[in-house]
Design brief:
The N terminus is likely disordered. The strands form 7 sheets. Strands 3-2-1-28 form a 4-stranded antiparallel β-sheet, with no helix packed on it. It has a 4-stranded antiparallel β-sheet with strand order 4-5-6-7, with no helix packed on it. The protein contains 2 helices and 28 strands. The longest helix is centred in the last third of the chain and has 28 residues. α1 runs antiparallel to α2. It has 2 domains: 51 residues, no CATH class; 289 residues, YVTN repeat-like/Quinoprotein amine dehydrogenase (Methylamine Dehydrogenase, Chain H), CATH 2.130.10.10. It has 354 residues and is mainly β.
């Protein structure tokens, strides 16, 4: 019985660890697929078929799902991170680009580049709740850490739109740099940083009054960006320069420029902040940057033309709501049966001896 109990505890403990380790989901634009990278080993463990030209992406804060925007299909592929299968497909606006999910994982916002609107999705059933009209074509979308605001880059009108989540209405529109691409809110909720593609810069906005408070010059044609979990540093991918700019956010200074792969585009950080992963669109691989010294320590081959425009690293599914596979249920059941059998055997042995 003791052996069976130990086996059961070991199984459950290892099951929990396997689900808690980070995984990177990489959109392969020309392959119509998503490569899943185990960040513990930096190897691709599976490839998931999705729609046509997967571009935007957002992992759920609770780790249970990944939304992948299929640019040519006008759909969202919903990936269950426990099984790494597409469980449903959601019809959205024309040319979905940026995707953002609220901190409670309850609502998703999807920008549509051609429709100039946001699609609002109830993530409990993956159903569309409605749309929010905007002033122009959208690109990146971000939700504030406190869950009260959505920030949208309006790429052709050089504007940042701010939406109140409580009412799902636009409450402000402010000028940005030239051709804004992706906004991201600093983890302390104090500032919004947004890359400007043609401006080759990052605009910084105060979340108090939505005013533009700083502009940081970086490399040529920046794409995505990401903060370290404590908000101390920001990493931005420069597509034409083939570099990654590292910005210290305490004084908004570029402290280092890292030579990357060919046309770096998507950028995401691991949950504990020890590594930054960068998709290299023309190299068909992903660079892994060690944050402690900003050194590229690994390069991972993936599919054709990786994008992953948005947060693409998850800490794995939440076991409270995740469902084990059939094989995993079989193993769990076997150990439980062994435990029960051992308990009955010991009881019978005790009864005979008495």
């Amino acid at each position: 019985m003791r052996v069976s109990i130990i086996l059961l505890l070991t199984l459950l403990f290892s099951f929990n660890l396997a689900s808690a380790q980070p995984f990177a989901y990489i959109n392969n634009g020309n392959d119509n697929s998503v490569s899943v990278i185990d960040c513990a080993t930096n190897t691709v463990i599976t490839t998931i078929p999705v729609g046509t030209l997967p571009f935007g992406i957002s992992v759920f804060p609770n780790g249970n799902f990944v939304y992948v925007g299929n640019f040519d299909d006008d759909t969202i592929s919903v990936i269950n991170t426990f099984t790494n299968n597409v469980v449903t497909t959601i019809n959205v606006g024309d040319e979905p680009s940026g995707i953002a999910v609220t901190p409670d994982s309850a609502t998703a916002y999807v920008g549509s580049q051609e429709d100039s609107e946001l699609t609002v999705i109830n993530t409990a059933n993956h159903q569309v709740l409605g749309t929010i009209p905007l002033i122009g074509p959208t690109q990146g979308v971000a939700v504030s850490p406190d869950g009260t605001r959505v920030y949208v880059a309006n790429i052709t009108t050089d504007m940042l739109s701010i939406i109140d989540i409580a009412t799902n209405t636009v409450i402000d529109v402010v000028p940005s740099g030239n051709t804004p691409v992706m906004p991201s809110v600093r983890p302390d909720n104090a500032f919004v940083y947004m890359t400007n593609q043609v401006g080759s810069s990052v605009s910084v906005f105060s979340t108090v009054n939505n005013a533009l408070v700083d502009t940081i010059n970086i490399g040529t044609t920046p794409g995505a960006l990401t903060f370290t979990p404590d908000g101390s540093f920001l990493y931005a991918a420069n597509q034409i320069d083939d570099t990654i700019s590292v910005i210290r956010t305490s004084d908004n200074t570029v402290i280092q420029t890292i030579n990357g792969g060919d046309q770096p585009f998507g950028v995401s950080v691991t949950p504990v902040g020890d590594f930054v992963y960068v998709t290299n669109n023309r190299d068909d691989n992903v660079s892994v940057i060690r944050v402690s010294d900003n050194t590229i320590v690994d390069t991972i081959p993936v599919g054709d033309r990786p994008f992953s425009f948005g947060p693409f690293i998850t800490n794995g599914p939440n076991l409270v709501s995740a469902v084990p596979t059939i094989s995993e249920w079989g193993l769990i059941s076997l150990v439980i049966v062994m435990g029960i059998a051992g308990f009955i055997a010991i009881r019978r042995k005790s009864a005979v001896q008495s």
